[in-house]
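About this split. The held-out portion is used to measure sequence recovery: a designer receives only the C-alpha cells and must propose an amino acid at every position. Recovery is the fraction of positions where the proposal matches the reference. Here is one held-out target exactly as it appears in the evaluation file.
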C-alpha cells in the first residue's frame, strides 16, 4: 500500500467551551473524509480539497457556510489550492456570498491565471464547468476560524485553505489565506504548509515561505513549524502552522490559546486535539 498522511486545522484562536465538542466533531468528520478518499483514490489534491470542503460545510468554522461577516454585513471568502508536484496554484479572494470557495480555487488550479478576486471568481469557475455551491451563507458569526489541510501520498503533497477572513473586515480585504508563501505553500520535494491567524501579520513576514525554507534546509517538520512561527515575533500576532514534510511527517506549532488539529496516516495513527502539544 502506498503510504499517506493528512493533517487539517480548524483555525488558530480560542475555542469557547460551548463550541469545543462541535469543533472536534467537525475535525473528526473531515479527517475521516480525507482518509476515506485516500483509501479509494491516491490523489493528494482531491484529498486536500475534500477535507476543506467538509470543513466549509460545517458552520462551526469560519469558512464556506460558516464565514463571518465584514463591516458591510456581507460575507467575502478566500480560498486556495496548491499541487506541490506541479506547483500549480488556484486561488480566489473576496468572493461574495459563496459557500464553497475552495471549489472555485480548485477549478482554477490547472489554469495559467493563479488568482481571481471578487464576483468574477464565481463566473470563472462556472465557465470551468465547476459550478460553485453559491448562495447565501448560513454561518453563525463568531465561528471558529480559517481551515486548511495538507495531504501527502507516496511523495506527492498538496494543500488547501479556506476562510471568511476577519469579522468586521473592510470590504475587499484579503488576508494571508489565498496568498502563496503567506498562508500556504507546497513543493513535493520538501513538503507543504498551511497557516491560520492574523493575516496581515502572517503576510508581512511571508510565514509559509519561511517554513518552506526551513523544510528545504532539512530542519525537520517540527523545527520548521516552530522556526517559522518564531519569525512572527518581528511583527507580533497569533498564528498556527501545520506542516507535512516530503515523507509525510508532521510538524505543528501555534501561539494561540487553541489550534484544533486532526491527523491521520496509513500506519493507523489518528488523533484530534484542540491543543496539539503531543504532536511534538
Ligand atoms: N488568516 C485569516 C485571515 O487573516 C484568518 C484566520 O486564519 O483566522 O484572513
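Reference sequence for scoring:
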Amino acid at each position: 500500500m502506498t503510504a499517506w498522511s493528512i493533517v487539517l486545522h480548524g483555525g488558530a484562536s480560542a475555542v469557547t467551551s460551548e463550541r469545543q465538542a462541535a469543533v472536534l466533531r467537525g475535525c473528526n468528520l473531515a479527517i475521516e473524509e480525507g482518509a476515506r478518499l485516500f483509501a479509494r483514490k491516491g490523489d493528494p489534491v482531491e484529498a486536500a480539497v475534500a477535507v476543506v470542503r467538509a470543513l466549509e460545510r460545517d458552520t462551526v468554522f469560519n469558512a464556506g457556510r460558516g464565514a463571518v461577516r465584514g463591516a458591510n454585513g456581507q460575507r467575502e471568502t478566500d480560498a486556495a489550492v496548491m499541487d506541490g508536484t506541479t506547483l500549480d496554484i488556484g486561488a480566489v479572494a473576496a468572493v461574495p456570498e459563496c459557500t464553497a470557495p475552495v471549489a472555485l480555487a480548485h477549478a482554477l488550479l490547472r489554469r495559467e491565471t493563479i488568482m481571481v478576486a471578487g464576483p468574477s471568481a464565481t463566473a470563472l469557475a462556472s465557465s470551468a464547468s465547476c459550478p460553485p455551491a453559491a448562495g447565501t451563507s448560513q454561518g453563525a458569526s463568531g465561528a471558529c476560524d480559517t481551515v486548511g489541510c495538507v495531504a501527502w501520498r507516496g511523495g506527492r503533497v498538496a494543500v488547501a485553505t479556506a476562510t471568511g477572513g476577519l469579522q468586521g473586515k473592510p470590504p475587499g480585504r484579503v488576508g494571508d489565506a489565498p496568498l502563496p508563501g503567506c498562508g500556504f505553500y507546497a513543493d513535493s520535494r520538501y513538503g507543504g504548509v498551511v497557516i491560520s491567524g492574523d493575516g496581515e501579520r502572517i503576510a508581512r513576514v511571508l510565514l509559509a515561505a519561511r517554513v518552506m525554507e526551513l523544510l528545504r534546509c532539512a530542519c525537520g517538520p517540527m523545527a520548521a513549524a516552530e522556526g517559522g512561527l518564531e519569525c512572527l515575533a518581528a511583527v507580533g500576532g497569533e498564528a498556527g502552522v501545520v506542516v507535512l514534510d516530503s515523507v509525510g511527517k508532521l510538524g505543528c506549532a501555534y501561539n494561540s490559546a487553541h489550534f484544533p488539529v486532526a491527523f491521520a496516516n496509513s500506519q493507523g495513527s489518528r488523533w484530534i486535539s484542540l491543543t496539539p502539544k503531543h504532536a511534538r
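Annotator remark: The chain has seven helices and twelve strands.
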